[in-house]
């Protein structure tokens, strides 16, 4: 028989860490800890010094509208608490994206803020190529207010309730036209959601603003619209327009006798015109915290809340984390609606 050498197991030598390796690891750990401490101290110092100069609050709409009134009310109250001027700068155009892009690329030090809207953060980035990411390029500070949209019809339309409107629209497909304030606007999306939910078909007529849309509704050239409540109130009271429902989950303070679409069987129907406040992404956490504390005080002030309500808005306050979660959900919801409705800007 051939001679077989006995098998011998040679255990692997345990890995050894040289003293200089341990020293390098400890040095790196100490350096990282020092950097984190320095960053914390810098952030804290920035918050203590903040604001160092005037704060710009960028409003992506023209002066005089509900957004402008809200922005100026909040800006004045913030200035009183921060001890520095807070000025509203109107940068309208391109469906709110001019103002949003300006803030997204501003210095992230808390001195440039944005009056946030679903249009800027969720809708326009889905409809067109924007120079910013509606979620990643912003740090949500707080939700402020909501302007209810209301479903109104011309007084001569032979419907007095939402069920009657649905029945009429089904019996006359594409015979009714609805006014909006632009492609992809909340009034447009509210109508699209209504049609999807009820199985109806109507014709979209986009306007450049709520004023001309309301004028044509009152004159009878338009059949209906899902528009901001404040400009419609006088026409609802006069009987020129008939309010059938509001498009948010709870009844509007301005129209307490008008039911919600959710109440009427369109479960979960929620498309209002909300406003919040955001800063550029990478704004230091302590600065954001100071802004959030300031806004919490502002929005809990009875005089400020009363002024906001008198302007036609409803206080809808959410702090930073809650606002960020709402914004993410709303962006996903709007994206699905835009895609399923096949909405395009061209």
Automatic annotation (TrEMBL):
Region (Disordered): 1-25
InterPro entries referenced in this protein's UniProt entry, alphabetically: BUG, Bug_dom1
CDD domains: PBP2_Bug_TTT (cd07012)
Similarity comment: family membership: Belongs to the UPF0065 (bug) family.
Identification of the protein by name: ABC transporter substrate-binding protein
Annotated source species: Rhodoplanes roseus
Taxonomic lineage from the root: Bacteria, Pseudomonadati, Pseudomonadota, Alphaproteobacteria, Hyphomicrobiales
């Amino acid at each position: 028989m051939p001679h077989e050498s006995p098998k011998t197991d040679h255990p692997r030598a345990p890995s050894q860490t040289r003293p200089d390796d341990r020293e390098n690891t400890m040095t790196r750990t100490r350096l990282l800890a020092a950097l984190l401490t320095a960053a914390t101290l810098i952030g804290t110092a920035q918050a203590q010094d903040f604001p160092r100069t005037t704060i710009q609050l960028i409003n992506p709409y023209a002066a005089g509208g509900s957004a402008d009134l809200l922005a100026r009310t909040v800006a004045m109250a913030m200035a009183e608490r921060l001890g520095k001027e807070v000025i509203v700068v109107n940068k309208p155009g391109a469906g709110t994206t001019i103002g949003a892009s300006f803030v997204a690329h501003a210095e992230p030090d808390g001195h440039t803020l944005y009056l946030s809207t679903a249009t800027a953060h969720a809708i326009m980035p889905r409809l067109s190529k924007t120079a910013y990411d509606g979620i990643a390029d912003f740090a949500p500070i707080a939700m402020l207010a909501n302007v209810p949209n209301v479903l109104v019809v011309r007084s001569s339309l032979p419907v007095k309730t939402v069920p009657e409107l649905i029945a009429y629209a089904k019996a006359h497909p594409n015979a009714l036209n609805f006014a909006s304030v632009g492609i992809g606007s909340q009034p447009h999306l509210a109508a699209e959601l209504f049609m999807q939910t009820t199985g109806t078909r109507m014709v979209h007529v986009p306007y450049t603003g709520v004023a001309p849309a309301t004028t044509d509704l009152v004159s009878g050239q338009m059949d209906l619209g899902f528009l901001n409540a404040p400009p419609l109130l006088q026409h609802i009271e006069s009987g020129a327009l008939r309010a059938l429902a509001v498009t948010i989950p709870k009844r509007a303070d301005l129209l307490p006798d008008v039911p919600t679409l959710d109440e009427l069987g369109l479960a979960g129907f929620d498309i209002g015109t909300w406003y919040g406040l955001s800063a550029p992404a990478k704004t230091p956490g302590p600065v954001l915290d100071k802004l959030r504390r300031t806004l919490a005080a502002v929005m809990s002030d009875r005089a400020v809340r009363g002024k906001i309500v008198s302007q036609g808005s409803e206080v809808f306050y959410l702090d930073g984390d809650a606002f960020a979660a709402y914004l993410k959900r709303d962006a996903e919801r709007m994206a699905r609606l835009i895609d399923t409705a096949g909405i395009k800007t061209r």
